[in-house]
Q: What sequence folds into this?
């Protein structure tokens, strides 16, 4: 389906597919709370629109997760009122803004703790926090032996409430879950010891999409789905539940021309026609998130037929060999990601072609690709 649109490229976001993914998620996690990850512009899908849909979902989303304060502020300014967790911490200069917009920070250092408490006292309003433990990712968080003294210091700050305890899996997407099991055991031990000391933490979480799909004992009482919401699995093995990609991308054909055998195509002359060919130039390039690595590797769908990307992908355009598609004309659309007729190509397919990951494909989709949001009742 092509909506009435006069631009160069368009991403259709289908909320009916998101609703189906939420249904599959709920069937896996039961009554556990859900922290839906909408950082990085909801993995390229549009954070504000996705958050609005999630906030009203019948499947009950409990919190939203963003990476940075400014992402949370943008959601608040768009009218999103549900709890928002800022996952990467909060620079001291942004703490007033964080508190003003009622965002929940993840903390792992004493300076942030002190600054948060001061701001809370100034505003006369307690602040809830989640404390991060580094159980093996080596990125953010307190080391396990530091947790108990840190919690004791938190408890001396009267305006701070411990709402959650979390860690981050380093490799829950692998078939071998032994290291993930070690990380889970560390967090569970910390939680149990805190409970023995009289502190029961409302939210305990580490289960990302990979763990939700194939390490369900890690789900604890809160899960953090990200990629699976948008229709993709982070696992290399075949999915055990159906997930539906919610985004389809189409690009407009700018020109089509017939060229003789031996014609070089694009920068560097990395492709030379081996026969008389029809070459289509389409309006999407690496500035729009179609990776340079798909030069002479990518595939698009033209009038229901798979056609190859030929030559080097340019900043604003790329070329297709459409010799087998006589009907394709300037002004027509080709499918970059999505389904057309009996053919389909998705972000994970492009990731394999470009030796990357669907996360990078989705998050890289640029702002020139205009998003259109299709509600379940309009499909």
A:
């Amino acid at each position: 389906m092509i909506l009435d649109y006069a631009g160069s490229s368009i991403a259709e976001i289908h909320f009916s597919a998101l609703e189906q993914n939420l249904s599959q998620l709920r069937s896996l996690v039961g009554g556990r709370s859900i922290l839906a990850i909408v950082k990085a512009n909801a993995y390229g899908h549009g954070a504000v629109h996705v958050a609005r849909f999630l906030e009203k979902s019948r499947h009950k989303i409990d919190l939203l997760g963003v990476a940075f304060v400014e992402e949370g502020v943008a959601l608040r300014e768009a009218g999103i009122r549900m709890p928002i967790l800022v996952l990467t911490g909060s620079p001291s200069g942004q703490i007033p803004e964080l508190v003003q917009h009622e965002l929940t920070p993840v903390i792992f250092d004493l300076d942030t703790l002190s600054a948060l408490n001061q701001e809370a006292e100034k505003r006369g309003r307690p602040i809830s926090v989640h404390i991060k433990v580094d159980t093996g990712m080596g990125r953010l968080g307190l080391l396990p032996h530091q947790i108990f003294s840190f919690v004791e210091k938190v408890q001396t700050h009267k305006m701070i409430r411990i709402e959650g305890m979390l860690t981050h899996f380093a490799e829950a997407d692998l078939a071998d879950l032994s290291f993930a099991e070690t990380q889970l055991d560390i967090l569970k031990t910390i939680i149990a010891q805190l409970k023995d000391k009289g502190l029961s933490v409302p939210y305990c979480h580490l289960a990302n999409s990979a763990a939700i799909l194939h390490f369900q004992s890690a789900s604890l009482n809160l899960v953090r789905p990200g990629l699976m919401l948008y229709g993709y699995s982070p696992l290399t093995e075949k999915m055990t539940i159906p997930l539906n990609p919610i985004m389809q991308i189409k690009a407009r054909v700018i020109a089509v021309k017939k060229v003789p055998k031996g014609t070089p195509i694009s920068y560097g002359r990395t492709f030379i026609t081996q026969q008389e060919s029809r070459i289509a130039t389409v309006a999407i390039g690496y500035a729009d998130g179609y990776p340079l690595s798909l030069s002479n590797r990518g595939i698009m769908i033209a009038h229901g037929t798979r056609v190859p990307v030929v030559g080097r992908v340019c900043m604003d355009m790329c070329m297709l060999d459409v010799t087998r598609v006589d009907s394709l004309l300037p002004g027509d659309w080709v499918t970059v990601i999505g389904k057309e007729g009996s053919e389909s190509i998705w972000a994970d397919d492009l990731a394999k072609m470009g030796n990357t990951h669907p996360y990078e494909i989705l998050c890289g989709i640029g702002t020139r690709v205009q998003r259109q949001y299709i509600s379940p009742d309009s499909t």
Q: What stands out?
A: The radius of gyration is 24 Å. The CA atoms of residues 172 and 180 lie 6 Å apart. Residues 178-196 form the longest helix (19 residues).
